[in-house]
From TrEMBL:
The lineage of its organism: Bacteria, Pseudomonadati, Pseudomonadota, Gammaproteobacteria, Lysobacterales. One of its GO terms (molecular function) is S-methyl-5-thioadenosine phosphorylase activity. PANTHER family: S-METHYL-5'-THIOADENOSINE PHOSPHORYLASE. Belongs to the PNP/MTAP phosphorylase family. MTAP subfamily. One of its GO terms (cellular component) is cytosol. This is Probable 6-oxopurine nucleoside phosphorylase. Phosphate binds at T12, R54, H55, T188. SUPFAM superfamilies: Purine and uridine phosphorylases. InterPro entries: MTAP, Nucleoside_phosphorylase_d, Nucleoside_phosphorylase_sf, Purine_phosphorylase-2_CS. The keyword Transferase applies. Pathway: Purine metabolism; purine nucleoside salvage. Although this enzyme belongs to the family of MTA phosphorylases based on sequence homology, it has been shown that conserved amino acid substitutions in the substrate binding pocket convert the substrate specificity of this enzyme from 6-aminopurines to 6-oxopurines. It comes from the Bacteria. It is an enzyme of class 2 (transferase).
Length: 249
């Protein structure tokens, strides 16, 4: 099968595509093991779209234990060549407050101990993929154009800091990320983006800001899962118009 026009990976709070009925469901098994859950497939405006919940549909898989290789390989095996990754994140700098949606253009990887390459399998060729621009520019632009066409405000650009989790960061850690130039912080951006590049997939991230990162909220309130989910929920209606726009591009 080589007919998937777009694959969507859903992050925290995004366990389905709103209003979409699946026509197929694939329990994939890859050379790297099983993905986080079934790959759902739907026809949207005449295009086949695959969807995979990164943490599983019941949110049972923490960020450091996601089988990123299997997730991407499963989508690749189904014929997907473009991946729109939805990442729930914390906002660090002013333009990236709660409920903002952003399309980052850079990232810094602070994760550790995750399998971050496809080159570990015996006999595989060692790759040193170009990763200067970690997201596929054409796909980023397609997302931004889709947002503009649908009247959905999207922040263009920004640097995503990928942290280990699953705990949230200390205020000092976020101060360090800010000094490093990060605008957003999340736990799943890496190794996903790097593996996508190794697999030759077009890959871009649509970040949904769920909360101010530690120490960035002027009110200094505690970050709760309820706040995170409520903020994601309040903007998730924007996802389908963006997907439709990307499909039409
Ligand atoms: N930090 C890291 N990951 C996150 C956050 C955060 O504040 N919010 C949602 N995902």
């Amino acid at each position: 099968m080589n007919d998937i026009a777009l694959a969507v990976i859903g992050g925290t709070g995004v366990y389905r595509l709103p209003g979409v009925t699946w026509r197929d469901s694939v329990e994939a098994d890859t050379r790297y093991g099983r993905p986080s859950g079934p790959v759902r497939i739907a026809d949207i405006d005449g295009h086949a779209v695959a969807f995979l919940a990164r943490h599983g549909e019941g949110h049972g898989v923490p960020p450091h234990q996601v089988n990123y290789r299997a997730n991407l390989q499963a989508l690749h095996d189904l014929g997907a060549r473009r991946v729109l990754a939805v990442n729930t994140v914390g906002g660090i700098t002013e333009a990236y407050g709660p409920r903002v949606m952003a399309v980052p253009d850079q990232l810094i990887d602070y994760t550790w101990g995750r399998i971050s390459t496809l080159c570990e399998e015996p006999g595989t060729e060692v790759l040193h993929v170009d990763f200067g621009d970690p997201y596929t520019e054409d796909l980023r632009q397609a997302i931004l154009s889709a947002g503009a066409a649908a009247g959905i405000p999207l922040v263009a650009g920004g640097c995503y800091g990928a942290t280990q989790g699953p705990r949230l960061e200390t205020k000092a850690e976020i101060r360090r990320l800010r000094r490093d130039g990060c605008n957003l912080v999340g736990m799943t951006g890496m190794p996903e983006a790097g593996l996508a590049r190794e697999l030759g997939l077009d890959y871009a991230s649509l970040c949904v800001v769920a909360n101010w990162a530690a120490g960035c909220d002027p009110q200094d309130t505690e970050i709760t899962l309820a706040e995170v989910l409520a903020n994601v929920d309040s903007v998730i209606g924007h996802l389908m118009p963006i997907i439709r726009g990307v499909l039409d591009a």
